[in-house]
Inverse folding.
């Protein structure tokens, strides 16, 4: 017969309530008593009843993480950091990849509510504010990332996309480039909109025109990146620099650049946003990037989540993580 809390308490010579408090780490229990109860539980191979505990404490030990995918380094890093942090907090993380589909995201958030997850990190579609707010109102810890969620009551942690676009453009302008092409995300999405604002703002501040034929804004796909870079390379007067702020599009754009034997940076300087492991050794060079600091994003999201789990009220609004320019061999003055 499996050991019960009552039998553990009997072996340890304490009441059942004291055994419960000892195993849950209650500060009122003497260290000697806690050690005696822990030893009895280990000897009897006692496994606590998580469901019963959840009913008493309203805590299940479960956290949810919604990400669009686990292919890109940013989402992969966020998942790894949060899972390691949660393990140290005695929580388990259930990860849902949605491909950016608001319907799949909504289904997971409904599951999190039904199974009373302690908290959820939503680095997803930017939709489902009503479901996010329902979790918040029910006392669940919630943090949004990646995209703005209009109408959300949850605190958010996001990369400063506008600064990223500006940093990249200022770097290229500072090298002397004036014909700068940009491959960006869709304008209706947070990162696509803000990257564009940062890029255009830097160009205007420098008195350099933004040429419509060199700016392409579209979906987060490699195929879009391939088509966009082919288009900018086909103009009569080619650009001397290329900014790819649409991260997924870089997987289509970069092979076209190398496949056309374009010498980087002699013929074309290239900057990407968000780092990937292979960006440090791409082709015959290494790529200059504006790093969104995914590890810090995950750490800050974990801190905001912990504030809520421990009853502290986090700061309202969006916390922006400042990006940093990492200059490598793919950028140089135009020749």
């Amino acid at each position: 017969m499996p050991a019960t809390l009552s039998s553990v308490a009997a072996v340890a010579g304490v009441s059942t309530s004291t055994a419960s408090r000892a195993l849950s780490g209650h500060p009122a229990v003497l260290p000697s008593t806690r050690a005696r109860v822990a030893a009895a539980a280990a000897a009897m191979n006692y496994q606590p009843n998580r469901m019963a505990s959840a009913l008493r404490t309203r805590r299940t030990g479960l956290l949810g993480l919604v990400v669009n995918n686990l292919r890109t380094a940013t989402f992969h890093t966020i998942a790894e950091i949060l899972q390691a942090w949660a393990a140290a907090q005695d929580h388990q993380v259930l990860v849902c990849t949605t491909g950016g589909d608001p319907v799949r995201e909504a289904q997971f958030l409904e599951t999190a509510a039904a199974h009373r997850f302690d908290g959820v990190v939503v680095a997803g579609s930017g939709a489902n504010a009503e479901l996010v707010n329902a979790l918040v109102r029910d006392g669940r810890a919630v943090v949004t990332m990646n995209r703005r969620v209009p109408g959300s009551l949850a605190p958010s942690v996001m990369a400063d996309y506008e600064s990223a676009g500006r940093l990249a453009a200022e770097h290229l302008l500072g090298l002397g480039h004036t014909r700068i092409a940009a491959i960006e995300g869709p304008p209706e999405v947070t990162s696509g909109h803000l990257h564009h604002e940062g890029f255009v703002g830097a160009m205007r501040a420098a008195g350099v025109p933004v040429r419509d034929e060199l700016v392409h804004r579209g979906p987060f796909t490699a195929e879009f990146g391939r088509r966009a870079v082919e288009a900018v390379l086909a103009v009569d007067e080619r650009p001397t620099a290329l900014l790819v702020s649409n991260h997924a599009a870089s997987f289509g754009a970069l092979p076209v650049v190398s496949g056309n034997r374009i010498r980087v940076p002699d013929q074309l300087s290239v900057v990407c946003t968000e780092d990937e492991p292979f960006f440090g050794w791409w082709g015959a060079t290494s790529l200059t990037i504006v790093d969104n600091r995914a590890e810090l994003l995950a750490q800050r999201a974990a801190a905001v989540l912990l504030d809520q789990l421990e009853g502290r009220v986090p700061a309202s609004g969006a916390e922006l993580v400042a990006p940093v320019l990492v200059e490598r061999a793919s950028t140089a003055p135009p020749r």
Remarks:
- The mean pLDDT is 92.
- The chain has three domains: 5-48, 60-158+294-322, 161-292.
- The longest strand covers residues 62-67.
- Residues 60-158+294-322 form a domain with the Rossmann fold fold (CATH 3.40.50.2300).
